[in-house]
Amino acid sequence: MNPLQSNSLPPSYFDKLYSENPDPWKFETSVYEANKYAATIAALPKERYRSAFEIGGSIGVLTEKLQEHCDSLLSVDVSKLAQDRAKERCQHLSNIKFQIMRVPEQYPDEMFDLTLVSEVGYYWCWEDLKKSQQYILEHLEPGGHLLLVHWTLYARDYPLSGDEVHDSFFELAPNKLRHLKGQRDEEYRLDLFERV
């Protein structure tokens, strides 16, 4: 945990970033992001999911790739600026629903067979991470998949590290989650779980 940042990052943090740069993390152009997205999609154990939930869809680059494997995909973000770009990118796709939502303050009512938490968990404080885990588990069908992907280097602004986020989900195993796959790159970590 970061002693310099004990609160979850607010929507205003992201709106400021997106107002200054429409692609602040270079999702559209970075080789790192392209390789990570390929690894994310390759980690999915099923070819098709009935109902998927993406927390923190940003400008929709990964959303567009993920939807190819989903009958229905709900993508949420806290930033309207980011989500407007995602909607524009994916406007030709009918299986994606977009919603402004700040997890864990809000969470959808439906059940999912896939939940993706990619590059968003370290924006939560510890308390919000624990609340988010509870909602994720409650709304993930038995046998459903949870895929975590996070950058693992230090970021001064973030309340948690990528490793802290992933390690906290291992604490829920084996009673609630079964670990299916783990992968570590120089700069990111990927872990796939199945709901028990």
TrEMBL record:
One GO molecular-function entry: S-adenosylmethionine-dependent methyltransferase activity
Domain of life from the UniProt record: Bacteria
Transferase as UniProt keyword: yes
Keyword Methyltransferase: yes
InterPro entries: SAM-dependent_MTases_sf, SAM-MeTfrase_NodS-like
Keywords (A to Z) from UniProt: Methyltransferase, Transferase
GO biological process: methylation; oligosaccharide biosynthetic process
Designated name of the protein: Methyltransferase domain-containing protein
Organism: Dendronalium phyllosphericum CENA369
